C-alpha cells in the first residue's frame, strides 16, 4: 500500500470535532500523527480530556495528544458550552480516559511534527487558531513545511453564527486568526456558510446513530444534547461544521465549487470583530490567500460520516 498522508489536527472537542476525528481515523489514505488541543468550545481541561476519551473509544491510543494554550492570545472570550454541553461532550458523565496528554506543548508539537513530515504534512484546524498562531510566532517558517493548511472558520459573506457577522472559531481568538491568515501564504477555508449549505437531516443522523456499533453508540450519547438544541433552534438539519471541513481535507476531490480570494480578519469594529472579510471583487490588490469551499458532494460527505460511525458507507 502506498505511504499514507500525515495529518495533524488542531481541535477543541466539541461534538462536531469528535465526528471529524472519527472520520480522520477511519480514512485509509491519511495517518493522524497527532492531536493538538485548543480551548474553545469549552475550557482546555475539558477539550484535552475529550480528545483523550475520543482516542480511547476509537481504539487510537497510539495517537499523541498535546495540550495547548488555555486562553485566547489577547482578549478573553466566551465558550460554546450552550451548544456542546458544559463538559463539551454533552454532559453525560463519561469516565476519564486512562491516558494523559503528552508533556510537550501543542505549539511545540506542531513545529516538531512539521519538521518530521516536512513537505507532506496536512494541518487541519477545527478550533480557534491560538495554538497555530503561537507556533507561527515561535517559527514563522512553519508554512514552508506544511503541504496543505485547512481551517474550519469564518463566514465568507458575513452570515455568522456567534455574532451576526462572525463565526465562533475566528471570533473566539481574532488576533490568532489574523496571525495565521497573514502568516500562511495560502489557506483552504471551510466556513460556517458552507456548513449551513451542507446540513445533515436529523432524521438521517438519528438512523445512522441507531446502528449497533460502539462508535455510533458513543456518538449518539455525546451528541444527543447538541442535536436536540440544534433541532429546536435551527430546524430539520444539523450543522456539523468540523465534519464538513474534515470531509474536504480527506477527500478534496469531492469539492464541487471553490473560489480563491483575499481574506482578512477584522480585529476592531463595533459590530464586526472576528469577521472574515473576503475581497470578493479583488478591490484591495491583496493576493488570493485563501481557497474558499462553496460546494461539496453531499453524498460523499454523508458516506464519510457513516463510515466514521462504523456503518457501511
Ligand atoms: C465551529 O465552532 C465550534 O463550536 C465547532 O466545534 C466548530 O469548530 C463552528 O463555528
Ligand atoms: Ca471545533
Automatic annotation (TrEMBL):
It comes from the Bacteria. Keywords: Hydrolase. This is Nucleoside hydrolase. Residues 7-302 form the Inosine/uridine-preferring nucleoside hydrolase domain. GO terms for molecular function: hydrolase activity, hydrolyzing N-glycosyl compounds.
Amino acid at each position: 500500500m502506498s505511504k499514507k498522508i500525515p495529518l495533524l489536527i488542531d481541535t477543541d472537542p466539541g461534538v462536531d470535532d469528535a465526528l471529524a476525528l472519527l472520520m480522520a481515523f477511519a480514512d485509509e489514505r491519511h495517518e493522524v500523527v497527532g492531536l493538538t488541543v485548543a480551548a474553545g468550545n469549552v475550557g482546555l481541561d475539558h477539550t484535552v480530556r475529550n480528545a483523550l476519551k475520543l482516542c480511547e473509544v476509537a481504539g487510537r491510543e497510539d495517537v499523541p495528544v498535546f495540550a495547548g494554550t488555555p486562553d485566547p492570545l489577547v482578549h478573553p472570550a466566551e465558550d460554546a458550552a450552550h451548544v456542546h454541553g458544559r463538559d463539551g461532550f454533552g454532559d453525560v458523565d463519561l469516565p476519564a480516559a486512562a491516558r494523559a496528554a503528552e508533556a510537550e506543548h501543542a505549539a511545540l508539537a506542531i513545529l516538531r511534527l512539521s519538521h518530521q513530515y516536512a513537505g507532506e504534512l496536512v494541518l487541519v484546524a477545527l478550533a480557534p487558531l491560538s495554538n497555530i498562531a503561537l507556533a507561527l510566532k515561535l517559527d514563522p517558517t512553519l508554512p514552508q513545511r506544511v503541504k496543505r493548511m485547512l481551517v474550519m472558520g469564518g463566514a465568507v459573506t458575513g452570515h455568522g453564527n456567534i455574532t451576526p457577522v462572525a463565526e465562533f472559531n475566528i471570533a473566539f481568538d481574532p488576533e490568532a486568526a489574523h496571525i495565521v491568515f497573514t502568516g500562511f501564504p495560502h489557506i483552504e477555508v471551510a466556513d460556517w456558510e458552507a456548513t449551513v449549505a451542507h446540513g445533515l437531516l436529523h432524521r438521517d443522523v438519528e438512523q445512522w446513530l441507531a446502528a449497533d456499533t460502539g462508535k455510533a453508540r458513543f456518538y449518539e450519547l455525546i451528541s444527543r444534547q447538541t442535536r436536540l438544541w440544534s433541532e429546536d433552534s435551527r430546524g430539520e438539519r444539523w450543522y456539523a461544521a468540523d465534519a464538513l471541513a474534515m470531509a474536504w481535507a480527506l477527500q478534496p476531490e469531492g469539492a464541487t465549487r471553490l473560489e480563491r480570494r483575499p481574506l482578512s480578519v477584522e480585529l476592531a469594529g463595533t459590530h464586526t470583530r472576528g469577521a472574515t472579510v473576503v475581497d470578493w471583487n479583488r478591490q484591495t490588490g491583496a493576493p488570493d490567500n485563501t481557497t474558499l469551499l462553496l460546494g461539496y458532494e453531499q453524498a460523499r460527505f454523508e458516506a464519510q460520516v457513516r463510515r466514521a460511525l462504523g456503518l457501511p458507507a
